[in-house]
Every structure is written in structure tokens, then in C-alpha cells.
Amino acid sequence: MKQLIECVPNFSEGRDMSVIRTITDEIEKIEGVRLLDVDPGAATNRTVVTFVGTPDAVIEAAFLAIKKASETIDMSRHHGEHPRFGGTDVCPLVPISNITMEETAVYARKLAERVGNELDIPVYCYESAALLPERRNLANCRSGEYEGLPKKLEDPAWKPDFGPARFNARTGAVAVGARDFLVAYNINLNTTSTRRANAVAFDIREKGRPVREGNPITGKIKKDQQGKEIWEPGALKACKAIGWFIEEYGIAQVSINLTNISITSVHEAFEMSCVKAMERGMRVTGSELVGLIPKKALLDAGRHFLVRQQRSIGISEDEIIRIAVKSLGLDDLKPFNPREKVIEYLLENKADKKLVGMTAEGFANETASESPAPGGGSVSAYIAALGVSLGTMVANLSSHKAGWDERWEEFSTWAAEGQGLKDELLFLVDEDTRAFNRIMDAFGLPKGTDQEKQLRSDAIQEATRYAIEVPFRTMQKAFEAFRIIEAMVETGNPNSVTDAGVGALCVRSAIIGAYLNVKVNGAGFKDKPYFDGLLARADEIITHAKSMEEKILGDVNRKISGS
């Protein structure tokens, strides 16, 4: 599997998009890198860029971007709301796929060394790439900001990890790090007061606020017996926050960095901010996402708010995310398009969803065309998806049936299980076609030399094995749907019992259709013991499926007739 890392450089320019474009053009030059997001902010005068790729390609693209920024951004003329000390202020690397944090840190240091040596820019390594413990925290590295950098560079304790220990007025310094996925997230307040926004930030951030004698704002900071300042921690772990005023929007915000969303989630940060703002006479009006977010964070938020409403969480992914966007007020300041902000959506290859992305009419027309794919395997998986969708629909209707309020969670659980099966079966719709194409590709390999013939034969057998396994998986997943459908016939909304019955008919037909594809695809498979064993398991599924269909339809007919 290919290793992937994400790079999220922050450039100290958010107003002149021609400058940002020259920087992002450098990133897009590099093969193996995909530019995902460019998020400029006029008030902060800062742009967050996100791109993903293989490690070496990302390092090359990051170096070229930092180089171009050093040529086009003059820090001596920079002003903005966000803390900063360089034209490329920070450049973190984030492990995404098949790579450890330790490996990512090695790449970060490699990039830092090259920037320091070749561009003559002071570089500090932070977070997991830090070479000194006190430099793990970005705030320590950036303390004093650009204006304090000349004095900082004179201090031997703050000699850069790479590059010269001298002030360059044009470039400033850069922090290069390796870290977990960070969500940059702003809470919008109905105030213009930076001081009040800061108060909320101190309430929620892990660091908290210093304990003072007398006046809580101007009083002298208390110290312990060792002379260390005493701090009162805030409400949220893995949370950094400050308050600021955004002239562009005319409001104050709590600017939050969530450094580990498995510890403090986006919705937990939002709700705690709401509580602390209310305690101080303010109201949260919405929130703003800076850069990208993992899909799970929005799905978790959507499910959280649905549960708070005692509503079923067994609805589509798109609908759950829509609930999250509305609940968090992510469209408060400007339109929010999840397709442009969720990292998994940006990494999607639309070709991977050729069939399920079609309209119902388009799918039927494609099936009826001269093309051999989609064929019976894809159609079987789609019929199964429709069958489980009907069972899921009954669960969702039952979850908010009048008089059944206390049973919402029971039906929500069934609906969520159904959604998971539906999603997997929809994946198998296209996967069956991809399996067929793999066989065609294998048959197209050269067969001149003995070695080529052997490679071609091996490729055909491997592709055939997969073409057997995909419809068998459709059989297995479709059979799991009977459990949901049976439960909905027995305990679900009686007004929808026939919908569940149709679902059972779809599932049985899908299983038999997929079974036919298992048999025909395995006709030329040489590993007979493997195929015979799989076929025996498939025969068992067929037998049980026919029995389940008969039972469920009997129950449906009895309920219709009132017997």
C-alpha cells in the first residue's frame, strides 16, 4: 500500500491571491501530490494550504512552496491577527496512510534541513519532529513572533535547529513539524470584544489561565513554593485557544486548535464554548472551519446532535453531515460545502463510483447497453442495497412513530446497521465491474515468452479469484439484511410491513443472482479445492435465504390479513 502524508503549510499572505497562486502553482508541479484546499483569510492575512501525496513528493512540493514564499512574501510589511514569525509560518506534516508518526518526523527533519541549508532561513522543528523537548510546543517556538525574532535569534538557547542564527527581515523564520491531524476551528460570538472572547478561550483551553491575587485580570500571578506560576486548567484537553476580533465579519471569535479530536471532538468544543459564552452573557452564533476536516469528525457531530434530539442516526451519510453543519452553524459566515472541506471527499476518485453515481435511469440505460458491464453481479448488489434500504426505511419510520417515542433508540440501532450494509452493498455494485475489468486486463497481457505466459496465467487466476469473491461477498452481506427486515416485520411500524416484505424479495433475488455469478466466474479457476469449499458455503446461504424469505413473507401476509 502506498504511503501518504498530508502537508498543511500556513503562509503569511491572505489578501493577494496572485501571490498565493504562484506558491500553489509550485505545489501542483510535482507528480504524486494533490492540492486539496487553499483557505485564505483577509483579517488574519494568512492562507492555509493543504496537499497530500507520497512522502518524497510532498517534501519536494513543500520545499518549492517555501522557496517561492520566501521570494514573494515580505514579512517586514506583514500585519495580521494571527500569531506568526515567517513568510511560511508553519509547515506541519501529518501521517495519513501506511506511515507512522516516527517516519513522518524523519521526513519533516529532512525538509527542515534542506530549507535551512539551501534557502538560508532559520528553521525550528516542533511537535513530533522536535529535536529539543522545549520546542515540541509550537507556541514556544513562535513566542515573541516576528517582531521579537531578532532578539530571539541572538539567544544561544534559541539557536535554530537548521539554518542561520541571524535575522532575515524578509523571510523571518519557519517552524517545520510532524503532528497528528489538527482541526483549526473558530467559534463565532455575538460580541466585538476581544477580551471577552479571550475569557471564553481561557475557560476552555487545556492550558487555562493563571491564578491571580485579588483582581482576576490585573492581579499578580500566584506562585507555588518552587516559584512556578500557578495555572487553573481549562475545561478541554488537547485544545488550544485564543480570542480575537475579525474585522472582515465584524465579530469576535474564539480561535481553537483541536490537536487530538479523539480526546476533544469538534462538537464537544462547540458545546463547551456555548456554555462558557452563556455564563459570560454572550451567545455563540455559529462556527467556522479553517482548512480541512476528517469525515468522521462531522459524522460524530451529526450523530451526537441527532441523539440529543432522540432521532434515528440510521440515515444517509450526507444527511448526517447536513445535520452537523446546521447544528454547528458552519454556514453562519459563508456557505459551507462538505465536498470542499472533508478530506476523504477530496481524495475520492469519481471513477471509483461510476455506477452508483448514476441516476436510476442512467444505471438502467447503462445496463441495457451493448457493454458487458454492469452485468448480473452489479445488478444483484444493487437489488440487495434496495432491499436493505427498505428495511432501514421501516426502522426510521418506526423510530418517530407517534406514541413510540420511548423506542426511538431501538429502531435507530436497526437503521444504523442497515445504513452500514447499504453502503457496503453499493460499494460492491462498482466493485463487481472492477473485478470483471481486472480479468479483461489480465487476458490482455503479453504471452510471447514462457515467462510472460506464466505471468499472464498467474494474473488471470488472481483476477478470477477476486471475481469469485466479490459476488460471494454480495451474498453474505445481502443475507445479513434478512435480520433487519425480519425484525421490522415483527416489531416495526405495521403500516410499512409490506415495504419490509418487498425488501425480503429483493434480498433473496440478489443472493440467487450473486450465486450465479460465483458459479460462472469460477468456471476456469484452477484452485478447485478452494472453489468447491466456497461454493459449498454459497449453497448454504441459498438454502437459508429461501427459508428466510418464506418465513418473512408468511409473517407479512398474516399481518396484512390481520390473523
Brief overview:
By secondary structure, the protein is an alpha+beta fold. Helices cover 51% and strands 14% of the residues.
Structure, described:
The structure is a single chain. By secondary structure, this protein is of the alpha+beta class. It has three domains: about 5-180, Formiminotransferase, N-terminal subdomain (Formiminotransferase-cyclodeaminase, Chain B, domain 1), CATH 3.30.990; about 185-345, Alpha-Beta Plaits, CATH 3.30.70.670; about 350-560, Formiminotetrahydrofolate cyclodeaminase monomer, up-and-down helical bundle (Four Helix Bundle (Hemerythrin (Met), subunit A)). It is about 50% helix and about 15% strand. It contains 17 helices and 13 strands. It has helices spanning about 15-30, 55-70, 100-120, 140, 150-155, 195-205, 265-280, 295-310, 315-330, 340, 345, 360-365, 375-400, 410-445, 450-490, 495-520, 530-560; strands at about 5, 10, 35-40, 45-55, 90-95, 125, 175-180, 185-190, 210, 230, 240-245, 250-260, 285-290. Strands 1, 2, 3, 4, 5, 6 and 7 form a seven-stranded mixed beta sheet that branches. The protein has a four-stranded antiparallel beta sheet with strand order 11-12-8-13. β3 (about 35-40) and β4 (about 45-55) form a beta hairpin. α16 runs antiparallel to α17. It is globular, with a radius of gyration of 29 Å. The model has no long low-confidence stretch (mean pLDDT about 95).
